[in-house]
Amino acid sequence: MSFWIWTVVFLAAIGLFLFQLSKRIGVLLKMRTDDGRDYRLSTLVARTKNLLLYGVGQYKFFRDGGIASYLHIVVFWGFLTLGVQVATMFVRGWAPDLTLPGLSMDLLGGPYGLAKDFFQTGVAIGVLVLMYRWLVVKPTRLYGFLPAEAKLRGQSHKEAIFILCSIFSIMLSGFFYDAGRLVMHAGTPEAAAEAAWQPVTAWLAGFLAHDVGFAENVSNVAWWIHNGIILVFLNVLPLSKHFHIVTALPNTFFTKLESKGRIAKPDFTSETPRFGRSTPTQFTWKQTLDMYSCTECGRCSSVCPATATGKPLAPRQFLLNLRDMTYGLQTKILAEGSAALEAEVVVGEGRPIIDDVLWSCNACRACEEACPVNIEYVDKIIDIRQHLVQEASRFPTELATTFKGLENNSNPWGIGAEERDAWAAGMDIPRIAEKQDAEYLYYVGCGGAFDANNRKTTQSMAKILQKAGVSFAILGKEELCNGETARRLGNEYLFQTMAEALVAKLNSYGVKKIIVNCPHCFNTMANEYPDFGGKWEVIRAGSLVEHLLKEKKLKTTKQLDKNIVYHDSCYYARFNDVVDEPRNILSNIPGAKLTEIAESKKNGTCCGAGGGRMWMEEKATERVNHMRLNQAMKATPDVIATSCPYCRIMIGNAVTDKALDSKVEVMDVVQIVANQLED
Amino acid sequence: MPMQRSWLTPGVLLRKALGPCLPAFAKSYRRIYLNPEKLAEVIAQQLPENASVLDVGGGDGYLSNDLLAIRKDISLTLIDLATGIGKGIDPSFRNRVHVYDGKSIQDWMQERMATDSVHAVVLSDVIHHIPDSALNGFLHDLAELCRRTHAVLIIKDVEPGHYLATMGLWADKYLSGDRATRLVSQERLTGLLKAQMPNAIVLETELKKIDPPNYCVVLKPK
Hints:
The complex is a heterodimer.
Chain A: H1 2-30, H2 44-56, H3 59-64, H4 67-91, H5 109-137, H6 140-143, H7 150-153, H8 158-184, H9 189-197, H10 199-208, H11 212-236, H12 244-253, H13 285-293, H14 299-303, H15 305-308, H16 315-328, H17 330-336, H18 355-359, H19 366-370, H20 378-391, H21 398-409, E1 440-443, H22 445-450, H23 452-467, E2 472-474, H24 484-488, H25 492-508, E3 513-516, H26 519-528, E4 537-540, H27 541-550, E5 563-566, H28 570-576, H29 580-586, E6 593-595, H30 624-633, E7 639-642, H31 645-657, E8 665-668, H32 669-676
Parallel strand pairs in A: 1-2, 1-3, 3-4, 5-6, 5-7, 7-8
Chain B: H1 10-18, H2 22-33, H3 36-46, E1 52-56, H4 62-70, E2 75-80, E3 97-101, H5 105-111, E4 120-124, H6 132-149, E5 152-158, H7 163-175, H8 186-196, E6 201-204, H9 207-210, E7 214-220
Parallel strand pairs in B: 1-2, 1-4, 2-3, 4-5
Antiparallel strand pairs in B: 5-7, 6-7
Helix pairs in contact in B: 3-4
């Protein structure tokens, strides 16, 4: 009788699960595929490596540490191990004494039993601690950050408690099922071996040993509870955040392999050009898989500078709003496809995402770095910004000046081209038109050319090159902006126009190697310009300086008895993995003491200028640059070193706002080196 | 406050079983339902300077400690129908706390109002213990007290519907044995209070947003 009941229950539950899963997958299949990424078989090795590192290996949990991370590792690995037990218990619904191949006691059954006991105990304890965190500690990271995550905070979160209770019950019933069987088979050599390998199960069996009939009943009831909860659990997954149990591993497998800082180039000449994304079906299948994979752990929001300063953006809430909208439209998407969804706009007043959420983003990638399952946020935000700017013509009013400056004068300030090489006056620096055989082109960028403080950095770099005898030239008045700001602000059309102009200019001079001293310029020209025919070697100023110091072509002999903290630029540290280079340079300065800010390297906080925020007003809330300065000042620095003109402006402004000019100086690493060179 | 409470309940047995571990357990258990620091912050913002606060149904005084820690300028009077209240008050705050146990609001008005000043009346998780039949009478007493003293009335309770609210309700009913417990929504409570104090200004605090399902309403007599 139970054979047939189990068969019906099993088939019904599995059928329902597959039906739900097919709907979710059906939606994925309706999404766009033109994300400009490489999914060929040749990427299999790299993808498998990501799966093993981030998915199975739980790399980011190990990296971040903390009780919650370690508990997740135990629960995850526990589930992987206990999957074998689940399969065994399912199969025993039809063949009660069956043992899966290889798991008999004379093969791997013993060691597996020990691992099972260990993880079952670990998961049960882990779940109790996680329950304590949810119910008693109530970390803000789990419940939602205000004001940006008010919606999440207002939810009951009972699903999390339900899932934890389910997992605990699965562990407990698994134990009692095995304990009952040990009693039932007591006296046989197999049972004795099992008891020896499974100490916790054997200990529990002691409580049932007084009555074999009772032990059998306990085992049978535990079997039904265990399998019943698993089947319910399975069907709750697609309806809940725990769907990540199904999608997280595929999401890590399909992690972006291209440069992290590269935004895909939309093709405006295709038959169905897109000028941004505004409806759920305009996102790609991978972007939708990201939405499915969110665990709602809140690590992304906990490191977001916008969230921390009270702005309306929290990456988690942003993604959940997109996901919920997609879920809500599932039936419509499956029935009618993308054409029927033109009115279902994701952004705007009364829509899931308001404009200000998007304009609050610093595109600093802190959220992506923190996400344990490698969800991407920045590309989605920029995609929707593209819709706002190019299709809806809705953007903060102050950006009109920025766009106009970029269009008319090729720099966001809108300053005339005649000022572009004013920094070089009297320095005897050749222009590329005069010295086309120069080994390097020094591309200064708008920040280094027009901002008074950053001009000092540019002059310092030029002095270093001259001192080291490097053959270089500059574009001078001919230099054009590379358009990074326009791209991050969603003005893709303007960016492409600027990119094509600059690429044509540089190629016309036969440039091979380009030095840049701005991480934004570096990221765009090294990672994005190849899409526009700009295939040169782009070299960071820091990289060249480090090389020249190593080669003894530069010597920093002057003493600098100061405490220096290095503020990492997002576009070097997080987007391009440049972390050690500036630190190596600063450690070459005699007397200098290098101290780390608590939030540094890949976990550094943005200065507030990224994502085009440099050109927007920061209203009503704490300023990101002030927050960053507060973090830096905890290390009591004399000098805050940067490698980015935007960072230098933002941190410098914060120092002035807080009247700390007499206590701390903001300088570029290149400038510090130039000051300490031997005469 | 009238309660229909059994003398031997799982809650009583648990309290006895926990013995010296009870305070630590109780602290953790309370945190399931509310964040005491946030609640104290929200209430503290509503209290006038140097206020004498009447904490109605103050119990062991768990809220009092947080409130007294934030607001160094206030003093508290704990009033409760039960006896032996205020045992959880931190010794360093004892000189700022008066205990008035085994008494009702009416008792306080008759015996102490002429001599003791009161600037704010606070009720935390009291309303849901009042039987429906007695609720209007109880609110009438409160309104009378506030009218006569011009005190601000601050009431914290639990919004029904949330799973934590349901868990708490069941715990009150079946662990503590207070079978009359039922939750009163913020909307209904506000309506009842407005009926008792038509001239008062009713304010909603941010508690509902930061620590649902708890809510806190404030009535300021005009």
